[in-house]
């Protein structure tokens, strides 16, 4: 079985993202996977790296150290987050900035154009809630956040993408529509890693 980290990346506890993350985690756990579900909203840390030099990176607060240990522990990482202004909520982006550091998540090597991926061997999935229709996100916006998340954040560190799943439209959705979205997230958990 697989060790799975599910990160509810919404800054408010009890969000619909949290429901998707919980549905995924519950189903994966029911299939025998070892699952850790973490909520960004319950973490206390300064999301601002506060420096342009990695040599001056501040020490990780306890909640960041704990999520880092979860990332090291996991074989598969799932991030559920809302699409805000075409990207991640600031606190989630701050978590990435603070935790995915050189020497830990990746390593620059003299003479190589791209760094070594220190989290290689792990996979990732992303669940995204959005008020933007899927087709508009792809055709008009060019799936910008997807490219950033899969290639420039998770993939950059070695977490191989296994799916980027849009859940939209949230605004104006019915209870029945949201129930179907939660079942879809649960289905992904049933097929986990």
Automatic annotation (TrEMBL):
<dbReference type="InterPro" id="IPR003680">
    <property type="entry name" value="Flavodoxin_fold"/>
</dbReference>
<comment type="similarity">
    <text>Belongs to the NAD(P)H dehydrogenase (quinone) family.</text>
</comment>
<dbReference type="InterPro" id="IPR029039">
    <property type="entry name" value="Flavoprotein-like_sf"/>
</dbReference>
<protein>
    <submittedName>
        <fullName>NAD(P)H-dependent oxidoreductase</fullName>
    </submittedName>
</protein>
<dbReference type="Pfam" id="PF02525">
    <property type="entry name" value="Flavodoxin_2"/>
</dbReference>
<dbReference type="InterPro" id="IPR051545">
    <property type="entry name" value="NAD(P)H_dehydrogenase_qn"/>
</dbReference>
<keyword id="KW-0560">Oxidoreductase</keyword>
<feature type="domain" description="Flavodoxin-like fold">
    <location>
        <begin position="3"/>
        <end position="185"/>
    </location>
</feature>
